[in-house]
Amino acid sequence: MIVLGHRIELARRTLEQAPEEAAEHLRHASDEARAAGAELRELARGLHPAGLAEYGLEPALAALAGRSPLPLEVAALPDRRLPEAVEVTIYYLVSEALANADKYAGASRVRVEGCAPGSPWPRGARRASRSSSSATTTTAAPAPR
What is the pTM of this model? Predict the structure, then answer.
């Protein structure tokens, strides 16, 4: 990113006196920006939500709730840790549900309820529903095969 900034500054300085040289600097800057974007996407694929691996799903969802524009109620979660892939999936599912409830549903709150693999769905749970000004999203870990 530093090199990218230098390339753009060089292009800016040479723009009036040597437009072809400035264009070359901008071509290089464009290539470097694409490469940096690809590197950042690759890095992001390996990132997990802060604290999820160390502390578990409940604290990670609490941190997510603290950053959410909508109140998030986590009604129930399994008493034990779930496999990492399942916890990451639930985290991102809840994160997306919050974003969609805020952006598209006009919701005033989001409620999340989960159950452990092999457990029945919580009583009265719906996979996704919308009523008046609130959105209800229920998440659950998939049953083991």
Answer: 0.55
Token match 């006196």: residue?
A: 17
> Of 133, 137, 140, 98, nearest to 119 (Cα)?
140
4 backbone dihedrals φ, ψ, rounded to 5°: -60, -45
| In contact, 113 and 76? CB cutoff 8 Å | yes
Helices 2-14 & 19-45 angle (0-180, nearest 10): 160
Residue whose tokens read 């160390």: 54
Q: How far apart, in Å, do the first and last CA atoms of the chain sit? A: 46
Q: d(Cα 59, Cα 61) in Å, to the nearest integer?
A: 5
> Tens of pLDDT along 47-97?
778 788 889 999 999 998 998 889 999 988 888 888 888 898 899 899 999
